[in-house]
Each structure stands twice: as structure tokens, then as C-alpha cells.
Model the fold of this input.
Amino acid sequence: EETVRHLAWTDKTGYAGEVKTSEVMLPQGLYPVANSLKEGAKYGYVSHILRLDIALLYENAMDFSEGLAAVKKGGKWGYINEKGVTVIPFELDSCSVADAMGADCAFEFRNGLAPVCKNGKFGIINKNGETVVDFIFMSIIQNNFCFLIENYRFL
Done:
């Protein structure tokens, strides 16, 4: 029976230890994992059979949505596709307003768009990395739609 040793999941449960593929039934897809639960861990992605499909190259990694996942490398965020190819370069300060609350995380793409931060201002990009809404906002809160916040006023 195949065993993956010392696999650290990046979900809220923080599971680490020996994992047998027969013990974990995951739907097809890619899942972010880390090589440690400690600071400085490297992140990559495993498949539903717990095979490492995208190497442990990143400082942080988020779930895939619409075929892309936000990953952090060299202190900057970018997006990769399901083959691990960088499709939006690592030039984003943050991919989430949650950074202001002390969490290092990223927004997912919804309907082909994602809010991100560049040079301290938030805007919205499409899946090609093109700016759809200019980087002029102090914050963006994503729910089923986006709230744009400028000078402490909701727009």
C-alpha cells in the first residue's frame, strides 16, 4: 500500500503525519500541500491520489479556481495553471484584503476575474493578467460580488 510520509496539509485542520492513499478519498483535482507546518515551508500541489504533481516551489499556495491558483514566490504573488506554468507573473503585493488583517492569502477567480493588490492599491484582473479595474482602490472585499473601497467609502 502506497504511503506518503510527513505530508502537511494546508487546510485548517493542519494534519501532518503518515497518510495512506486508501485513507484519503479526494475528488479529482489538485490540492495545496506544504513540506512542513513551520514557517519557511515550501508549498506545491498533490493530485487526488496524493502524488506530488506540482513541485514544492512556493512560499504559499491557494486552491485552484477556474483553472488557476494564486501562489507566492520571492515575496510576491502570481497565478499558475494546473500544469504548474506561471500564467500571471509574480508581481502582485497581495491577492487579498485579508493581508491587512494579518493573514497571507489570496482571492480566487470568479467569472474570470480576481481582485489583487499591486504597489499598495487594489484593482481587478482577468485570467490573462490584464487590468479590468484600475489599481486605484485602498481595499476590495470579495463575496458573491466585489465591494470597492476608496477613501473609506463604499462605491
About this structure: The radius of gyration is 16 Å.
